[in-house]
Design a protein that fits this description.
globular; 6-stranded mixed beta sheet; alpha/beta; 35% helix; 208 residues; 6 strands
Length: 208
C-alpha cells in the first residue's frame, strides 16, 4: 500500500549526499538579474518544514544584501488551504508589486521525473510554466490535497525564480532541477540544498 507524504517533507529529510543537482536553465534573454526584494515560497503542507525552509533561505538572501520575505508571513492559512483562480493570483502579484517585490523564488516537489524527462521538459520550456501564476495554479493543491504525494524512491525538486517587475510579463528567469534520494537529517539537507542553489545562481549571475 502506498504511503501518502507531505510535499517538500522528503526534501528536508534527505542528506546532502543524496541531493544532486541535475540541471539548470536560465532565460537566454537575461545576462544579469539582480533582485532587491524577493518572496520566498516553499510549497508544502507541513507548516513546520515550510517555516524552517523559508526561514533559512530568507536568511541566506539577507546575508547577500537581498531583502527577502517568507511566504508564510504573507499567505494566511485560508489562502493556502483552498484552490485559487488565475484572477486571485493576478491580484496577489499586483499586491506584491505594490509592496516593492520584484521576484519570487518558488520551490516545490514535483514527483519522480527521471533526467531524460526533465531535459525534455526544459527543451519545451516555452510550453511549460513561464509565469508564476501558471506554475502556482498548476501545483497549488500541494497545500491542501493530502492525496497529492505518494512514497517515491527519487524525488524531483524544482526551484524557479520569477520576475514580477513593473512593465514586464511575470517571466521565468531561472530554474533548477534536483534529484533527492535516501532519507537523512533535515538540518543538513536544508543547508546543502540552499547552498547548492545559491552557488549555482551565483555562478549564473542570478541574485547571488
Amino acid at each position: 500500500m502506498k504511503t501518502k507524504i507531505v510535499c517538500l517533507s522528503m526534501l528536508l529529510l534527505l542528506g546532502c549526499s543524496s541531493t544532486k543537482l541535475v540541471s539548470t536553465w536560465k532565460n537566454p534573454d537575461i545576462v544579469l538579474f539582480d533582485a532587491y526584494k524577493v518572496l520566498v515560497v516553499g510549497m508544502t503542507q507541513d507548516e513546520n518544514l515550510r517555516t524552517e525552509f523559508e526561514s533559512r533561505l530568507t536568511e541566506r538572501l539577507n546575508e547577500k544584501g537581498v531583502e527577502a520575505v517568507r511566504s508564510i508571513d504573507l499567505f494566511d492559512v485560508e489562502f493556502t488551504s483552498s484552490e485559487k483562480s488565475e484572477e486571485e493570483l493576478s491580484e496577489v502579484e499586483g499586491q506584491l508589486l505594490d509592496k516593492g517585490f520584484d521576484a519570487i523564488l518558488f520551490t516545490k516537489v514535483v514527483g519522480t521525473e527521471n533526467r531524460r524527462t526533465f531535459r525534455e521538459r526544459m527543451s519545451n520550456l516555452n510550453e511549460m510554466y513561464t509565469r508564476f501564476s501558471t506554475d502556482y495554479l498548476e501545483h497549488q493543491d500541494i497545500y491542501y490535497n493530502s492525496e497529492y504525494y505518494e512514497t517515491f524512491n527519487i524525488y524531483t525538486v524544482e526551484t524557479s525564480l520569477y520576475c514580477i517587475c513593473i512593465d514586464k510579463e511575470r517571466e521565468l528567469i531561472w530554474r533548477s532541477d534536483i534529484d533527492v534520494l535516501e532519507p537523512m537529517k533535515m538540518e543538513k539537507t536544508i543547508e546543502s540544498y540552499i547552498r547548492l542553489i545559491a552557488n549555482k545562481m551565483g555562478e549564473e549571475d542570478v541574485i547571488f
